[in-house]
Design brief:
With about 250 residues, the chain is α/β, with parallel strands linked by helices. The protein has a domain of about 160 residues: 3-Layer(aba) Sandwich (Rossmann fold). Helix content is about 45%, strand content about 20%.
Length: about 250
């Protein structure tokens, strides 16, 4: 992902944002290879008396392999182009004016963080992460800063180590908070609730939020409403990212 990718806004992105869930990607690759091998074996190794069965099993496995190839193509398309367009969609929804202090929760290698910084003039984009290698390959603060330099936004970006469940920021500190594909990695509902509570805590009155994910979005919307968020909407699904995602948007009451 080191080559420039074109977003829906026509801008090129020069960062290297890696792969999401590398373990899943590797598992899909091995599964596809295994299905292809089994298909070939079914076609060639069954005895003559069971040739019809071999053909049926082989054809079904080959069909499954072709479906896997299409799915893999979709995944790589979403990594090469789709996620950049979805990132721009998310930022369109929070309507940045250019002078805001923006927080990206679980910033990873900086896809949304840097895209937000590109829209800022006097503002600043701050990213926070625990740098998990399981959920994103080569997820390190050095990579995030390198991507900010590649994108030409290093002076408008700051990154911090920190747990989203207990953010190192004072109350009512940010005008905008974003988060993408983070919360579903927290398998305990109370942990997800705590992150959402923290998002509302650090938002200024009238501050806007946008949370992108493919699971639990109704839960997010409910918790945010309980914390006083207004005009909470679930937008989607959108299929520019594999799998399809929704965006929860709203703002903190003044």
């Amino acid at each position: 992902m080191t080559e420039a990718s074109l977003t829906c806004s026509g801008q090129k992105r020069y960062g290297d944002y890696g792969f999401y869930a590398p373990g899943v990607m590797l598992g899909l690759s091995f599964a596809g290879l295994g299905v292809l091998v089994l298909s070939i074996l079914a076609f060639t190794l069954l005895q003559e008396s069971l040739l019809w069965l071999g053909r049926v099993i082989g054809a079904l496995l080959l069909f499954a392999f072709c479906g896997g190839v299409l799915q893999t193509t979709y995944i790589f398309w979403s990594l090469w182009l789709g996620r950049f367009r979805e990132c721009e969609r998310l930022l369109d929804l929070v309507e940045l004016q250019g002078d805001e202090l923006v927080l990206d929760v679980g910033c990873g290698r900086g896809l949304i963080l840097n895209a937000a910084a590109r829209r800022l003039t006097k503002g600043k984009a701050i990213g926070i992460d625990i740098w998990s290698q399981r959920d994103q390959c080569s997820n390190r603060p050095e990579e995030t800063l390198r991507n900010a330099r590649r994108e030409g936004v290093e002076t408008r970006v700051e990154i911090l180590d920190g747990d989203a469940r207990q953010m190192p920021f004072e109350d009512q500190h940010f005008e905008v908070v974003t988060s993408s594909l983070l919360l579903h990695n927290l398998h305990v509902p109370e942990d997800r609730r705590q992150v959402l509570n923290e998002i509302m805590r650090v938002l200024k009155p009238g501050g806007r939020f946008a949370i992108l994910d493919f699971q639990h979005v109704k839960e997010y919307a409910t918790v945010l409403k309980q914390r006083g968020a207004l005009d909470v909407r679930i937008i989607g699904p959108h299929y520019l990212i594999f799998p399809g995602v929704w965006i929860v948007v709203g703002y903190k009451s003044k």
